C-alpha cells in the first residue's frame, strides 16, 4: 500500500459538536477529503464552547475552542444556508460528487430540506449516509436530545465509574473526557468503512447507517456489561482498581501515585520481592488471587503503607526490571513530555489560519510504509468556501458572488 486507504473518497460533514465530527475527522485521517458544511455566520456550535479559546498571533482570543479543534483536523470548511433552496441545491450538487455524508441533526430535521437519506439516495444511489443521534432513528426516545453526560448516566457507565459508596468521594462519576461521544464516533467510522466496502465489492449501492450514543456507550462497556448479562451480578465501582488479578490499582508513593498491575501469581510474587516483603506472598490472606479478592481492603492498605515510603521513579524502575506492568499517573504536561509519546508523534503541529503554528493530537492509526498525510489544522468558519465551490462544483466568481449576495453562503 503506497497511499492512505481512503484517498479518493469524498465526505460531506454536516455535523456539529463532537461525536459525528470525530467520525468525519477519522475518515480524513485515513485519507478521505472531508468537506465540513456549516451555517453562515455561526458555524459549528462547538467553536464557541469556551473559554479557553485558541489565541491568534497577537495573543487575542479567536472564536475557536479546544472542543472544536479536537474534532475537525484534516477538513475544509464551506458555509451554506440549508434553510434556503439555493443552499439545499448546492448540497445536492455536492452529494452527486461525494461518497459519504455524516450528519447529527435531530431525527427528521433534514427531511424538511430534502436532505434526508431517502431524498439524497435518489440523487446519488452510491451515497453512504451516516446519522449519529443520541437515541437512534427509532424507539420511544428517538426525538429526544442529549449530550455525553446524559448517555454516560443512562448507559450505566457512571454507575461503575468512581469510588465505592461509603468512602470519601464515593458515588457515581462521569469520565473526565467525553467518552460517549468518542465511542459513538468510532462506531460511526467503522460503519462507514463497512458500508463503503460492501458498496465497492458487492452491491454498488450506498446505505443508511444509524448510530446512537446510548447504544454505543452501553456496548463499549464490554466485560462490565457482560458480567451483568451473563450472571446477573452488577459490577461495583472500584476506583482505580483493575479488572484482573490483584493487586491492580494506584498506589501512592512519597511524591505521586503509580499504577501497578499484577496479572498473574508470578507477578504478585515479584511485586512482593521488589517491595522487600517476600513474606507477603505467603500471607494466607493474600496467597492466591481468590484470597486477595476476599481481602481487598487489607491488601490495599498493607501494600499502600509500603509504597508510601518509595519515590515513584525508584519504584517504577524496580517494577520495570522485574517485568511487572506499571506506570506513573501522569498529568497532561507529563504525558506530552514522555519520550514514548514524543517518539510516536501523538501531538502534531500545523499552520492555523489565525493562530499560526498550533499543536493538536493526530490519529493513532499508522500504516507501515505509508507516509502520514501532512496535517491540516482545523479550519476557521468558511475558510474554503470559494475554493470548494470552484474546485468541486466548477462555479465561477460571478456565480459565487451572486450566492453570497443572497446570503446563501
From TrEMBL:
Keywords per UniProt: Transferase
KW Transferase (keyword) present: yes
Record's keyword annotation contains Transferase: yes
GO molecular function, one term: CoA-transferase activity
SUPFAM superfamilies: CoA-transferase family III (CaiB/BaiF) (SSF89796)
InterPro entries to which the protein is assigned, alphabetical: CoA-transferase_III_domain, CoA-Trfase_fam_III, CoA-Trfase_III_dom3_sf, CoA-Trfase_III_dom_1_sf
Domain of life of the native organism: Bacteria
PANTHER family according to UniProt: SUCCINATE--HYDROXYMETHYLGLUTARATE COA-TRANSFERASE (PTHR48207)
Entry protein name: CoA transferase
Amino acid at each position: 500500500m503506497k497511499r492512505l486507504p481512503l484517498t479518493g473518497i469524498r465526505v460531506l460533514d454536516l455535523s456539529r459538536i463532537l461525536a459525528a465530527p470525530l467520525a468525519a475527522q477519522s475518515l480524513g485521517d485515513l485519507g478521505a477529503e472531508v468537506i465540513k458544511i456549516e451555517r453562515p455566520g455561526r458555524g459549528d456550535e462547538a467553536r464557541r464552547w469556551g473559554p479557553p479559546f485558541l489565541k491568534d498571533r497577537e495573543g487575542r482570543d479567536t472564536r475557536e475552542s479546544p472542543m472544536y479543534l479536537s474534532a475537525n483536523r484534516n477538513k475544509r470548511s464551506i458555509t451554506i444556508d440549508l434553510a434556503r433552496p439555493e443552499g439545499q441545491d448546492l448540497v445536492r450538487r455536492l452529494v452527486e460528487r461525494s461518497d459519504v455524508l455524516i450528519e447529527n441533526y435531530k431525527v427528521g430535521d433534514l427531511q424538511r430540506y430534502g436532505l434526508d437519506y431517502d431524498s439524497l439516495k435518489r440523487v446519488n444511489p452510491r451515497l453512504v449516509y451516516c446519522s449519529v443521534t443520541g437515541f437512534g432513528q427509532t424507539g420511544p426516545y428517538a426525538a429526544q436530545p442529549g449530550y455525553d453526560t446524559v448517555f454516560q448516566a443512562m448507559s450505566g457507565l457512571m454507575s461503575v465509574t468512581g469510588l465505592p459508596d461509603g468512602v470519601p468521594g464515593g458515588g457515581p462519576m462521569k469520565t473526565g473526557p467525553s467518552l460517549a461521544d468518542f465511542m459513538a464516533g468510532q462506531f460511526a467510522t467503522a460503519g462507514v468503512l463497512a458500508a463503503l466496502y460492501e458498496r465497492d465489492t458487492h452491491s454498488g449501492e450506498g446505505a443508511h447507517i444509524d448510530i446512537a450514543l446510548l447504544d454505543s456507550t452501553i456496548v463499549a462497556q464490554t466485560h462490565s456489561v457482560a458480567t451483568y448479562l451473563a450472571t446477573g451480578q452488577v459490577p461495583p465501582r472500584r476506583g482505580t482498581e483493575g479488572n484482573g488479578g490483584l493487586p491492580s490499582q494506584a498506589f501512592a508513593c512519597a511524591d505521586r501515585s503509580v499504577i501497578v498491575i499484577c496479572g498473574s501469581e508470578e507477578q504478585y510474587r515479584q511485586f512482593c520481592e521488589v517491595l522487600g516483603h517476600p513474606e507477603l506472598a505467603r500471607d494466607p490472606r493474600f496467597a492466591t488471587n481468590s484470597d486477595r479478592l476476599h481481602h481487598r481492603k487489607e491488601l490495599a492498605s498493607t501494600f499502600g503503607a509500603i509504597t508510601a515510603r518509595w519515590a515513584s521513579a525508584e519504584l517504577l524502575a524496580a517494577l520495570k526490571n522485574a517485568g511487572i506492568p506499571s506506570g506513573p499517573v501522569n498529568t497532561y504536561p507529563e504525558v506530552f513530555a514522555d519520550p514514548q509519546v514524543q517518539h510516536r508523534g501523538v501531538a502534531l503541529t500545523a499552520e492555523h489560519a489565525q493562530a499560526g503554528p498550533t499543536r493538536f493530537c493526530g490519529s493513532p492509526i499508522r500504516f507501515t510504509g505509508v507516509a502520514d498525510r501532512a496535517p491540516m489544522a482545523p479550519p476557521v468558519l468558511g475558510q474554503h468556501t470559494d475554493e470548494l465551490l470552484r474546485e468541486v462544483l466548477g462555479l465561477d466568481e460571478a456565480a459565487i458572488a451572486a450566492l453570497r449576495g443572497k446570503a446563501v453562503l
